[in-house]
Amino acid sequence: MGPTLLYLDTARLGRMTPGARQAHLDFTRLAGEEGGSALFDHFLRLGVDAWPGALRDRYPGLSSWQGLGPLKESLRTLAGSDPGLPVLVANRSTQLMKLAARLLFHPCCNILVTDVGWPAYHELLCAEACRASRSVTTVSVRECLLSGQAGEGDLIDLIRSRFLRERCDGLFLPAVSHLGVRLPVERLVRTLEEAGEVRFVVIDGAQDFCHTSADLRNEYCDLYLTGSHKWLGAYDPMGLGFYGRRKSLGVIETVLGHLAATGNLDDPLLRFSKHLETGATDGWSETVNLASLFSCQGAVTDALEASRQPTGCLSLRLANASAVAAVASSAGWRPLVPTEGFRTGILLLQAERDRTRKMSAGALREAFCEQGVALTAYDDGIVRLSIPGGSWQPSEINHLQAALLSLA
User: Are residues 220 and 128 located together in one domain of the fold?
Assistant: First the structure.
């Protein structure tokens, strides 16, 4: 198997940005040379300015670390979040989803979801519904969206109808599905609020953050979940939870504190970060993997210095996706493209030939790897491409076309 020439798998795991890579390498060097010394403690709490100049020069990849508070401020900037609202960081995003599920069923009796949401998160939500003797209503939208048969108004009317008929009072929706469909989540929330009572809203922003247009300024949701390891490009997994509304701050803090105290929410970084920000100490706390903090800081610095808004990058991705779709259509693959308002930098292609459709997802992904293309594959001959936000080179298009033809 040769080297990867085209990396089109960011929707699964983003490739590390230069700043994230240098921060990770220099943190590894620091850990090897200083371990958990007092020097490292000062750096962790106070940032690189707590060091003398010689040390700053020794670890240039860590030069943007100013402490956990400034990192969260930068993350809020990227998410368009209110500076006065908290941000949660965790080693595992599933722990934040457990918090989200408990929060949803704290006031709500019936949560509406769609069949384009992330299955693992839906399993956690259904488990919490069972525990709390509450309900989850699933609206089937996948087929009509991926076939391009539904517009934004059609989708909103369908969800509004089910929300009211099933007497739902909460929402858990992806801003962008792992299948590449962008939902008009803010408009959906506002429409449902006008039609009935919406007690709590959680948005899955894993495929939205630093990809499309995450913008939490209008406070349309109560909690927004995402991570640092996909479109941001930090690579080291770290879950992020943005508080979305001031009015929900109290209930989130109460439920979070209760789950942590009872051991039902057990994430070392989440607990450690709380102690770090409040100055509290816990002599019996678990040893925490902090590497994701520094790679995240490096990636955030790269994103802010790029001086390009996600909406600008999205325009380039959409243009690139159209070019790939045209090439794929002539190479034995059918693009599964939703109508214009739902499109993102994620493109699904389905093989036309039955033989390719019968390949297992793992075998299909391996076959593309052998062609120098990294992507995600699903059953029934479907592949998912994460489209770059820069200009395609003719050689890249030609290489992808050759790979598609070879495996069509």
Answer: yes
